[in-house]
Every structure is written in structure tokens, then in C-alpha cells.
Amino acid sequence: MLDNIQSNEILDRLPAHLQQYIKPQNYDDYSPINQAVWRYVMRKNVDYLSKVAHDSYLEGLKKTGISIDSIPNMYGMNRILEEIGWAAVAVDGFIPPAAFMEFQAYNVLVIASDIRQLEHIEYTPAPDIIHEGAGHAPIIANPEYAEYLRRFGEIGCKAISSSHDYEVYEAIRELSILKEAEDTPKEKIEAVEKRVDDLQNADVKPSEMAQIRNLHWWTVEYGLIGTPEEPKIYGAGLLSSIGESKSCMTDAVKKFPYTIEAAKKEFDITKPQPQLFVTPDFAHLSLVLEEFANKMALRRGGLEGIQKLIDSKNLGTVEFSTGIQVSGNFSNVIEHEGKPIYIQTKGKTALSYREKELVGHGISTHPEGFGSPIGTLKGINLAIEDMSPRDLRAYAIYEGEKVSLEFEGGVKVEGEIITGTRNLQGKIIIISFRNCTVTHNDEILFQPEWGRYDMAVGKEIISAFAGPADHESFDLITHTPSTTTIKSKKTPEREELESLYKSVRNIRNGENTKFSLNAAFDIVKKHHPKDWLLSVEIYELATENDQKLAEEVKNRLLEIKKDRPEVVHLIDDGIEMTESKMVTP
């Protein structure tokens, strides 16, 4: 897929399991109406946001090469983003949160390449290129914020999800697609809305991913910076919404100081937000992120971390104190006095060290699962990992010896030692046995006829996180979304309207066109009476050299306002932008 986009060294580092989400931008698919929607939103945003957005926004627009007049092309964006150490890829709508965050960890901006319909020009629940390109991209030109985004991705992609999280993701993805699509039956939207509400209101303990996703929403997407009394906008959701960027600055939207408590605050992606959080500066965002990370299984490990992986029913990894990492679907943990003393996986499992699969310990070696004790030997103060070669010999932990190792908590490993595997520091991390039996009290955990027994060595579990330690260990090219974005229908009426938009765009660009502004206005007035944006575009051009036409168009816009009260403010804003430009010296 990378062959279809302007690459750079950042994109070249992307692993295959992330590349599966990338799709071509297909720039020629953007219609003239799409281009007009982009231009209107950007003109309005730059005009308004110059007053209320963080200084990094306008500076970032220049640095990232994002134009007001045209939808950004991924080729051009990647060429410019490379200069600030980032890249961009196109995707189809929402992708799973863990993948989204992992892209960030690689300094890659994920851009939903579709663009909102004219009918949803102020706000769309579906991610689109206005939100991603005009919202996220400019702010990452700020180095401090860009590092926060990268670090968030690095930590966030390790957060442990639940099966409930995936149901919520699928439901929200479907709802955003249906709401953005044309002519979706009301009852169909209401049915999915109910499913989303039921899922979001379910009495389920929020997972790590659910909580860190909340932090992402209230900062990266809907963040304010400064003070609750005098905030500025930096969140992409606000920067890309000409409606919500205004309403959020009113007293109707409550503002709270940003703290780790924001992780507990849920959000509804399909509606304007009733409250927002304000960070004093970008450095504070990183402080809260680290505070949250300190509570994650990624840094705490232990029994709680293993249990989170079991409950997630997803691929995950635990790391022993020696550094050996076990990746698989965790199915069971035996505990003693509040500590894990034995772990088990079910199905394909791989062993790694420092995120690199150990030779001879991939899923072909452990296709049915893996189990290992954790902790110290009973009656011996010295842990196996801390034993010197002399200590190991003294306790008969030596090649060719038949041993019976009883661990604190009652796990017993009996068999003949084949060999041991050491890490770079010389510590034993795996001991392999033949003719081995592993028991816990009366329960048999492993028996000789199952083959060689590989025992991971470690006195404790220091980390537990989502996903494999080494992504090359597993086939992760499995993404098949249950829903895809729905394209606009091409009717003869729509095609005629688009040709008019194209003609007016060509006139603005100084290109030859067989249409004049007067002809375009006559046709849109007669055959497309509900359309307002093209008249705004014609009015802007007419004010430059045809005052009579400008007056006619303005009168027509005033008539549309009477028939379509829902677009009154949009028309007013369009007229205001043009007329303010006329009086600007």
C-alpha cells in the first residue's frame, strides 16, 4: 500500500500490521462541491480561529503546507511533514483505537480521507479530512505538542482493551457512517443510536483503553489551553468544527482544569460536548499522561495486570523480572497470597526478549499454549534469576540433572534439565526440561507426553500490556471492518450542480471556462434552488468586478435564508467573510 503514496523514511518504518489500514487517497474522487466545502470551512476557520486558537494553529498551517483553497494532497503533505519529523496516511473512517495510537507512536498522522457532505458542513460525527488535515496536522508543528502526541501513542497502544470496547468501537463506527451517508432512514439511525447508548451506559468497569481514550478525546480532540476563564483552542475536533469552535467559547459549555480525572469522563462522539477541559500548557498534558501510565498494567504488572489480559480475551504480553516476555491469549492465572504463581496461555504463544522473538520459541514451538511458574523456590531466599553459576550447581539446576523444583505457593516442576537460555546480562531466563511434570497441589499443569517443557524464569511479573512483544511473531493482517464509508450518489441533478461548482472554481483559478458567473448563477437559481454555497462562492467573485451581479446574488441568498432557516448563519458568515475582505486595506 505504501507504493501508492508519497513515502518518506517515517512511513518506511511502518510495520505490516499498520499498513493494512492504509488506503489510497484517490484525490480525483473529490468533487468540486467537496472542494467548496473545504474552502468555506477553512476560510471561516482561519478567520475565526486566528482569534481563539492557540498560536501554534496558524503557524502550523504554514509549516504543514495546508491550503485554504484546496483539499490537501497526501503527496504534498508528506513532503512537507517530513521536515518536522512526521508523515500522514489515508484510512477509511474510524480505525481501532490501538492502531490509531500506534500510528501516532511512529509519528504518523492518520487522516480519514473522505470529506463531510455540504449538509454536515458545520460538524460531522465521522472522521474526515477537514478534521484530520485541518485539525490535527497544524498543531503537530509545535514540537512540544508533537512529542506529547507521539508519547501518547506509544503508551496508548499498550493499553489493555476489553471485548466491550470493541463492540463500542464497531457501533460508533457504524453510526458515524450512517449519519454522514445520504438518505439513511431515520429509524435505522435511531436503532444504531440506541445500540451505542446501551453499550456506553452498560454497567461495565472501564478498561485501560476506555480510560486513555477519554484522555485522548479531552486533549487531542477537544482540548483547550490557558485558563478556564480565558481558554484557547488546540483540539482537532474543535479546530475543524465551525459550529462547535464558536459554541465552546460560550458560558453554555463548562470548562474544568485538566487532570487525570478526565479519564473517568465519557463522551458522545455524535453530539456537541457539554463540557471541556483546559490545560495550562502542553507540558501539563505530558504530566497527566505519565500519571495515568503509572497506574497501567504496563508499569505495574502483577496479578491485576494478568487478570486484565485474561478478561480482555485479546492477544497480550506479560514480562517477567528477567525480561523474558510471553505473548498470547492468557486463559488462567494461579495466585497465592495476592501474587501470581503460575500463568497459562491458550493457543499460539511466542516468547521474546526485549521485543525480539527468541530463536526456537515462536508460535510453531508453542502452538497450543504455554504455562510457567512465577516466583521463588520454597525455602530458598535466593531467586533462580539471581543465582550465580556456583549457586545453580549447588541447587542441582544444571544440564542433565533430574530435579524437583517446588515454588512458593505449591507449584512443583519435576524433570530432567536439558539446557538453559541466558539474557545478555548472564541471567537464566528459560530452563528447558524433558520428561517433565508440573503440578499445583493435585492439579496437573504439564505432563511428560506433551513433549519438552520450557519454563520462563522470573520472580515477578513487572509488566502486562496489549499486543505481542514482537509483532513479527503473529499474523496480525486480519483487519476486516464490518462497515465501510458510503459514497454520495451520482444523480443527473448532482452532476449538473458539480459542473457548476467546477466552472466557478475554474473562474477563480483564472482557467478558461465556457461558463460565465452570470450563466452559472442563472442555472443554480433556476434548477438548484436549495443550494446556498455556490451562490456564496459566486458572490465573493462578483464583488470584485460585477457589482450588479453581486447585488442579485446577495438578494438571492437573502431569499434562501427565508426558505432554509437552518443555513441562515452559514449564509450570513459567507457574506460577512466576503464583505470584510472588501473593506480590508
From TrEMBL:
Cofactor(s) the protein needs: Fe(2+)
Pfam families attached to this UniProt entry: Biopterin_H
Key words, A-Z: Iron, Metal-binding, Monooxygenase, Oxidoreductase
Top-level lineage group: Bacteria
Keyword field contains Oxidoreductase: yes
Domain Biopterin-dependent aromatic amino acid hydroxylase family profile, residue spans: 1-342
EC nos: 1.14.16.-
UniProt GO MF annotations: oxidoreductase activity
SUPFAM superfamilies hit by this protein: Aromatic aminoacid monoxygenases, catalytic and oligomerization domains
Enzyme class: oxidoreductase
NCBIfam families linked to this entry: PRK14056.1
Family of the protein in this entry: Belongs to the biopterin-dependent aromatic amino acid hydroxylase family.
Protein name as catalogued: Aromatic amino acid hydroxylase
Origin species: Christiangramia sediminicola
